[in-house]
Amino acid sequence: xxxxxxxxxxxxxxxxxxxxxxxxxxxxxxxxxxxxxxxxxxxxxxxxxxxxxxxxxxxxxxxxxxxxxxxxxxxxxxxxxxxxxxxxxxxxxxxxxxxxxxxxxxxxxxxxxxxxxxxxxxxxxxxxxxxxxxxxxxxxxxxxxxxxxxxxxxxxxxxxxxxxxxxxxxxxxxxxxxxxxxxxxxxxxxxxxxxxxxxxxxxxxxxxxxxxxxxxxxxxxxxxxxxxxxxxxxxxxxxxxxxxxxxxxxxx
Length: 252
Ligand code: PEP
Prior knowledge:
By secondary structure, the chain is an alpha/beta fold. The protein has one domain (5-250): TIM Barrel (Alpha-Beta Barrel), CATH 3.20.20. It is built from twelve helices and eight strands. Strands 1-2-3-4-5-6-7-8 form an eight-stranded parallel barrel, surrounded by six helices. Helix 5 crosses helix 7 (139-150) and helix 11 (216-223) packs parallel to helix 12 (240-250). It is globular. The two termini are 14 Å apart. Residues 9, 11, 167, 172-173, 211-214, 232-236 line the site of phosphoenolpyruvate. Phosphoenolpyruvate binds at residues 9, 11, 167, 172-173, 211-214, 232-236.
């Protein structure tokens, strides 16, 4: 049985004070329910402060990105080891705002995944198609390429530390959510591809989150689908009550 996993991607929002307050509200209300995993991914500068707020709670901490080197002369970048040191257990890799907004390609994202895993982080690896790709019936081909190239060379042991987030790009921050049929079909396809790449055990155990305009009123429907194991939440993760309602929806 795969535990549901709800992660909040705070993107480039919050102040130091509001980030600490949001983390405290989430941690306080979430308590210790073991049936669902919860993570928050604040902007880099707030990570250590939020880690302090989350200390002793079961809310996990993630970075939103990392650079694929252990250390070096990479001005402005943040290494996976630094995220780990700051208290992160997870890092988001391949978010569409980086794939498409910042032109990060599959090979670069694959390097990030490898360096992050080597540093002891778990990875939330995002995949998803553009609207034009969906309309051209290329969704499955796009997902196949992003998974095969992005996860190339990973061992099954490393894959046990990878979560996939299916995020159709046309649904992110747009208010347009995938229908249950679209989400289930894409998730089942992703699980099938993982089965082909890494075998039955990995496919059965890998958590696949849905992301794209998840809100309290659509979360339960999405997360009750057989291959949807949680959510990666953007906008609604910035309001503790909305994020917690989505966490509650994961409990079924
Ligand atoms: C995201 O940032 O990954 C996301 C899915 O955003 P939103 O929930 O706002 O669509």
